[in-house]
């Protein structure tokens, strides 16, 4: 995987007014100093913004992201990303759009920030363009702007053969609650505005690679691509929570809509999505019977990854014996600029046909069958070799609960550090917050590893009630804010306050903070103003191949598989 590119130079806004259809504001110290006629037209006649705080011109839920982006832009750290935002019109209705930010000069004020909302382009299409427009109109539901049912299903089936680079796919069936009562109150025509309003909210929660469509009536179907099952659940819970917070004014009435969500996992290699649709529909119906306004998932504690336990166990053991694992690295980026040269290492298994298998498919079976310790040792040894050869500033390596509980791990580790001559300062071992809180051995392990020069981190941090106490008691160098929290962060004030408080406690103890699974510019902007120092996720860079070549094979594999004691590490050594 290529290392992250150096930070881009500040995104310079054009000195002129831009495209005539673009709505443009210029802001200095948070106050609007200039606005073009397109902005006034966008927001409604008589809505003159000069002298107004820029935050007052946008919907409240997007203000934290806008504040962070403005701060980053002013410091030259904003690289031309666009924010999803809601512009408030004079009648208090909301125009959902994207906003670009950049630095520019405005006489006589000097340096200021320009906000640009792209306007519609009205270039007359040629014959090919007209045909494309007609085909697009035939595929899209006019009310919601989402795919029609037939086109949705065809698109979903077309996506199945595309392999994921990481994470899991989930299917969500979303149903508006009590829509019949809304239709009786407003009438059939006006109630369509409620559907359109909800579809806009739904689209705001999705990543660019995700697919949504109108499945029929007031039901929507969404194909999600997230880090794990917890991220899918967090998305659904966020959607359920946000819907009633976004009332709509229709026919002089304020309408509040709620929704119910059913979730199902789409297993890797699926040829058809019909069974997953049925599973999502079944749990959605069950949630609706419980009163609606909630999310329910179809999977159990083990997720949907293990179909045949014995088969997966044999595959894992075979992969260990034949050295068919490999690591990929994912960059960790600094919100303060510069390349920190830090990477998270992620695991892949290769099957007998040479196809990559993601950890969500095999790790649950490995955990249930006592194989995690063996896999951990493979990962640690490969990571030490990579650290010795490539000298990253920091390589984050996961340890399972089984390894934390393993009394022979430290002695085994000593042997591999000596054989690879890796610098411990370049490796940061990490465990989940749940493991750190539940396993009393974690504190002693962390203290010993740090004594030898390694660094130590908690990942998936912030969801537990005891998170602040762990910061006080655990010897730590980093904490990684739980991706399930991060993905719901940009529009949730309570979560923002919670993450800010954790960041402040961590800073007070010189513990660096990293946000996991950052997927969009709005989330990055919010993290900026919450005081988070680093981010990782697909918004930064996707994982790429990294470390262990197949021909490094058998000798190392035997070493990795050994559980025999190597002499214990004693006092810290000079290196």
Detailed description of the structure:
This protein is an alpha/beta fold. The chain folds into three domains: about 25-115, 2-Layer Sandwich (Beta-Lactamase); about 125-295, 2-Layer Sandwich (Alpha-Beta Plaits); about 310-545, EAL domain (TIM Barrel, Alpha-Beta Barrel). The protein is about 40% helix and about 25% strand. The strands form four sheets. The protein has an eight-stranded mixed barrel with strand order 13-14-16-17-18-19-20-21, surrounded by four helices. It starts with about 20 loop residues before the first strand and ends in a 14-residue tail after the last helix.
Task: Give short descriptive properties of this protein.
Alpha-Beta Plaits, 575 residues, 38% helix, Beta-Lactamase, TIM Barrel, alpha/beta
């Amino acid at each position: 995987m290529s290392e992250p590119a150096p930070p881009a130079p500040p995104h310079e806004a054009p000195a002129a007014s831009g495209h005539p259809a673009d709505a443009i504001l210029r802001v200095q110290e948070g106050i609007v100093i200039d606005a073009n006629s397109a902005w006034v037209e966008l927001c409604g006649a008589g809505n003159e913004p000069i002298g107004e705080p820029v935050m007052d011109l946008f919907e409240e839920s997007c203000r934290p992201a806008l504040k962070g982006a403005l701060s980053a832009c002013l410091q030259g750290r904003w690289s031309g990303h666009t924010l999803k935002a809601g512009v408030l019109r004079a009648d208090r209705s909301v125009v959902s759009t994207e906003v670009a930010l950049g630095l520019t000069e405005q006489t006589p004020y000097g340096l200021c920030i320009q906000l640009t909302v792209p306007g519609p382009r009205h270039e007359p299409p040629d014959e090919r363009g007209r045909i494309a427009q007609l085909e697009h109109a035939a595929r899209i539901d006019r009310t919601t702007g989402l795919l029609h049912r037939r086109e949705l299903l065809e698109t979903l089936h077309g996506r199945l053969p595309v392999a994921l680079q990481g994470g899991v796919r989930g299917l969500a069936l979303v149903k508006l609650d009590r829509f019949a009562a809304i239709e009786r109150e407003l009438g059939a025509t006006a109630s369509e505005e409620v559907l359109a309003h909800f579809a806009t909210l739904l689209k705001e929660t999705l990543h660019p690679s995700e697919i949504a469509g109108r499945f029929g009536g007031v039901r929507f179907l969404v194909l999600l691509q997230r880090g794990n099952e917890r991220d899918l659940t967090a998305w659904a819970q966020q959607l359920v929570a946000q819907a009633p917070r976004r009332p709509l004014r229709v026919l002089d009435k304020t309408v509040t809509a709620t929704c119910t969500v059913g979730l199902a996992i789409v297993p890797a290699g699926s040829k058809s999505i019909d069974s997953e649709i049925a599973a999502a529909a079944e749990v959605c119906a069950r949630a609706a019977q419980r009163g609606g306004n909630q999310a329910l998932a179809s999977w159990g504690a083990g997720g949907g990854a293990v179909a045949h336990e014995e088969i997966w166990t044999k595959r894992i053991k075979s992969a260990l014996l034949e050295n068919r694992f490999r690591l990929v690295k994912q960059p960790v980026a600094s919100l303060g600029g510069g390349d920190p040269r830090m990477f998270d290492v992620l695991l892949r298994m290769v099957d007998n046909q040479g196809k990559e298998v993601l950890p969500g498919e095999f790790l649950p079976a490995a955990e249930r069958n006592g194989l995690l310790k063996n896999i951990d040792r493979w990962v640690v040894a490969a990571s030490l070799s990579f650290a010795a050869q490539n000298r990253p500033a920091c390589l984050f390596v996961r340890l399972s609960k089984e390894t934390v509980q393993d009394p022979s791990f430290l002695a085994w580790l000593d042997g591999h550090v000596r054989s690879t001559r890796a610098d411990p300062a370049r490796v940061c071992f990490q465990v989940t917050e749940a493991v750190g809180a539940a396993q009393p051995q974690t504190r002693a392990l962390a203290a010993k590893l740090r004594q030898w020069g390694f660094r130590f981190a908690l990942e998936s941090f912030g969801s537990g009630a005891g998170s602040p106490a762990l910061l006080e008691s655990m010897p730590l160098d980093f904490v990684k804010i739980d991706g399930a929290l991060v993905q719901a962060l940009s529009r949730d004030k309570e979560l923002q306050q919670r993450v800010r408080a954790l960041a402040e406690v961590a800073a007070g103890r010189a513990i660096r903070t990293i946000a996991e699974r950052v997927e969009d510019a709005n989330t990055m902007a919010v993290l900026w103003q919450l005081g988070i120092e680093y981010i990782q996720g697909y918004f930064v860079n996707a994982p790429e191949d990294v470390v262990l070549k197949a021909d490094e094979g058998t000798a190392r594999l035997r070493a990795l598989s050994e559980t025999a004691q190597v002499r214990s590490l004693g006092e810290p050594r000079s290196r």
